[in-house]
Automatic annotation (TrEMBL):
Family assignment from sequence similarity: Belongs to the sugar phosphate cyclases superfamily. Dehydroquinate synthase family.
Stretches assigned to the 3-dehydroquinate synthase N-terminal domain: 69-180
This protein's UniProt keywords: Amino-acid biosynthesis, Aromatic amino acid biosynthesis, Cobalt, Cytoplasm, Lyase, Metal-binding, NAD, Nucleotide-binding, Zinc
Gene: aroB
Primary localization class, coarse: cytoplasm
Cellular compartment(s): Cytoplasm
SUPFAM superfamilies: Dehydroquinate synthase-like (SSF56796)
CC cofactor: Co(2+); Zn(2+); NAD(+)
Source organism of the structure: Paenibacillus marchantiophytorum
Chain positions recorded as Zn(2+) binding sites: 185, 248, 265
Name this protein carries in UniProt: 3-dehydroquinate synthase
Length: 363
């Protein structure tokens, strides 16, 4: 499967399929990547032993000069220290302005390698080879960043890749918990944009959880497609792009309070989406949305309630430090029906607090 993210001269293709990594050289030739300039692969310590050798070999056999820089796995690698390490590796490997930096990994590697590509020599070419389901989201849209100890994703840029090569064979090594968490973001794309796909997700949970190749490539295709439509219409997050934040207001706060690792991003936003559906009820949108949302996440083995030990005050203060907060009301994405959301600016902090309390009781 193939689709294009339409961004004028920065448009780029996304290829999704089983075993397509074997054609990496042909894809690189199509994208006109130069064999005269060295390439640098960024990956992490978990992905490297599983998939790095194969990619290095394919590229070297195809005549590309390529080296790899391996960072520790996990969110803490999205740091200025790791960025410096990548720049060092890029200089040692002799990268020039026509070189490309390749991200082979999940969203952490994608964001880090992407920011390295955006900043090295004021910007070199960038290729995404996602290895997590969640990375269908992070690899489309061009947002790249590292974290500061005080704030996530605060040092970043917009830097679109040349291409995204999404081989579902690389996903087969994912631990089940990462599979579920990644699917949470796929389901989100249905909930904000596509009622039919939402129903499809409800009907195909078993296949997706088993990583069935046909189901998975279809789901990733639709997920990438929804994201790319939204991003094409609003590259810089002026308005529409905000709808991608469904479930993220509460989700980000839960991740911060629980400590990264206890709740995965996909798990936190599943809870957040159930919360948004509850809020929709308070705005008079009927209980169907809440039922569908909650049933869906339960079917996928994702959490739908806030762990009782997380303190409401801490969650609220994590949320109100969030940039989406302004003077007593917050910008909030709520579903109005399945497959549609609205950006509301009149949700009060008090209302959100009530939802947080209710989410602790959700069974
Ligand atoms: P991740 O990159 O940390 O990957 C999750 C875990 O799975 C890691 O331990 C990793 O080593 C391991 N892993 C990756 N691929 C594997 C494979 N094929 N087999 C076995 N293990 C594998 O995290 P993620 O969930 O992919 O991404 C989360 C990050 O993405 C966050 O930092 C978030 O901020 C970012 N993100 C960015 C955007 C964006 O628009 N740029 C959007 C969403 C999320
Ligand atoms: Zn997300």
């Amino acid at each position: 499967r193939e689709l294009t993210v339409e961004l004028g001269e920065r448009s780029y293709p996304i290829y999704i399929g089983q075993g397509i990594i074997n054609q990496i050289v042909a894809y690189f030739d199509r994208a006109k990547l130069s064999r005269k300039s060295p390439l640098l692969i960024v990956t992490d310590e978990t992905v490297a032993p599983l998939h790095l050798e194969r990619v290095l070999t394919l590229l070297r056999e195809g005549g590309f000069a390529v080296t790899a820089c391996v960072v520790p796995a996990g969110e803490t690698s999205k740091s200025l220290a790791q960025l410096e390490g990548i720049i060092t590796a890029a200089l040692q490997a002799g990268l020039d302005r026509s070189s490309a930096i390749l991200a082979l990994g999940g969203g952490v590697v994608g964001d880090l390698a992407g920011f390295a590509a955006a900043s090295f020599m004021r910007g070199v070419r960038f290729v995404q080879i996602p290895t997590t389901i969640l990375a269908h989201d992070s690899s489309v849209g061009g947002k790249v960043a590292v974290n500061h100890p005080m704030a996530k994703n605060i040092i970043g840029a917009f830097h679109q890749p040349e291409l995204v090569l999404f081989d579902i064979e690389l996903l087969l090594t994912l631990p089940p918990r990462e599979v579920k968490a990644g699917l949470s973001e796929v389901i989100k794309h249905g909930l904000i944009w596509d009622a039919e796909f939402t129903q499809w997700c409800a009907d195909h949970a078993d296949e997706l959880l088993d990583l069935d190749p046909d189901a998975l490539s279809y789901a990733l295709y639709i997920g990438c497609k929804v994201k790319s439509i939204v991003v094409s219409q609003d590259e810089r997050e002026n308005d529409l792009r905000a709808i991608l934040n469904l479930g993220h207001t509460i989700g980000h706060a839960l991740e911060a309070v629980a400590g990264y690792g206890e709740l995965l991003h996909g798990e936190a936003i599943a809870i957040g989406m159930v919360g948004a559906a509850k809020l929709a009820q308070q705005f008079g949108y009927g209980e169907e949305i809440h039922k569908v949302t909650k049933d869906m996440f339960q079917k996928y083995g994702l959490p739908v309630r806030i762990p009782a030990h997380l303190d409401t005050d801490s969650i609220m203060s994590a949320m109100t430090h969030d940039k989406k907060f302004k003077e007593g009301t917050m910008v909030y994405i709520i579903p109005t029906e399945i497959g549609k959301v609205e950006i509301r600016k009149d949700v009060t902090v008090h209302q959100v607090r009530e939802i947080v309390e209710l989410l602790k009781e959700e069974s």
